[in-house]
């Protein structure tokens, strides 16, 4: 699947297709995708199922949190010796604070 195929993607997509697509993006521009994945923004507490909470109790959300909330599984960033490599799926069901 190429990056331009996004317009032609089916209305239903699997987590594995998302990971394949993300890894294609990594092949195209690894530094940009790594920066995007590592970026988180402040958000409301109501997004608690897809956020991280810092030491001060502030909520932050990032791209992987949103995708993981959508699929109720974990798409994980893979690092080797601190260098971002790509993505893979963890098949453990995520626990959220709403369940």
Explain this structure.
The strands form two sheets. The protein has a three-stranded antiparallel beta sheet with strand order 1-3-2. Strands 4-5 form a two-stranded antiparallel ribbon. It starts with 14 loop residues before the first helix and ends in a 9-residue tail after the last strand. It has one domain. It is globular. It has three helices and five strands. 32% of the residues lie in helices and 26% in strands. A hairpin with a 5-residue loop joins strand 2 and strand 3. The chain is α+β, with helices and mostly antiparallel strands and 99 residues long.
Please tally the helical runs, counting DSSP H or I stretches of 4 or more residues.
3
Largest sheet: 3 strands, antiparallel
- Number of beta strands: 5
Shape: globular
Radius of gyration: 14 Å
| Overall pLDDT | 81
Low-pLDDT segments: none
Which structural class fits the helix and strand makeup? alpha+beta
Q: How many domains in all?
A: 1
Q: What is the chain-wise order of helices and strands?
A: HHEEEHEE
In whole angstroms, the N-to-C terminal distance is 35 Å
Proportion of residues in helical segments: 25-40%
Strand order of the largest sheet: 1-3-2
Strand content: 25-35%
């Amino acid at each position: 699947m190429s990056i331009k195929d996004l317009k032609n993607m089916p209305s239903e997509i699997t987590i594995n297709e998302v990971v394949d697509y993300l890894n294609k993006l990594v092949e195209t521009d690894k530094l940009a995708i790594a920066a995007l994945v590592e970026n988180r923004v402040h958000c409301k507490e109501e997004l608690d199922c897809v956020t991280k909470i810092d030491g001060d109790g502030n909520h932050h959300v990032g791209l992987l949190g949103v995708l993981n909330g959508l699929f109720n599984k974990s798409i994980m960033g893979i690092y080797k010796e601190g260098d971002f490599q790509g993505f893979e799926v963890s098949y453990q069901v995520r626990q959220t604070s709403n369940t």
